Amino acid sequence: MSDILQWAMGQCGKPIRGILHIGANSGQEAGHYAELGLKAVWIEADPQLFQTLQENLGPWGQTAYLCLASDVDGQSVDFHIASNDGGSSSILPLDVRWFAQEWPGIKEVKTVRLQTCRLDTLFARPGCDLSGVNMIVADVQGYELPVLRGLGSRISGFDAIIAEVNWAPTYIGTTKPYQLESFLVSQGFRRLWLGISDIQATGVWVRGSVGPLKRFHMALTVRLYYVAARFGLVKLLQTSGILGLGRRVYCAVKRRNS
Asked: Is residue 103 in some structural domain?
């Protein structure tokens, strides 16, 4: 994450002052954010993991909130805890077939009953501060669209978004990449980067207008990538080495180290 974060900060066109990191886990990136001089606000859903997160953020003076982010307030749902220290935990159930194929060592170990909360509701509460934060990092295991919708009008205060992109339905109900991008374009963002080399990759969007031709290009390419991944073409291109060559060309065009 650190390489694409610094690249995105350099390409954004506006100074990045702080990060809202949704899907904190144990706050592994806290030290890096601090080194970059960024304010960091963290969101984590798992109550047990949240205690570890708070301890880890202590040396950096960063803030965390316990919240199962969604686009609905007060909905009681099962949160699915994964075996890899919560790294693959999600409000969405794991698609067992895909996980067995891609990550056979990761399984669901239990569920906990939690209440959902919109992020615009959370940050309307006294003492919940988002000042100086203008980038989002969303690592929410297939639930990207409802989480970002839950920001409501507050999404207009952000200049860049880094989000996980799922090219396969690794969770039941996974946000499709073209759904995510369509929403972000409607909120005034344009694509800066779209990773396709893995089933779970990373996308970057920054504040900026999108003309009709660019909008068509974005919509077409993201759907073509999605179809290619679903039908196994991405893995075929990986094996042949063509995807690696394409990535190097893409990185050169985007002025990013491969």
From this structure: no
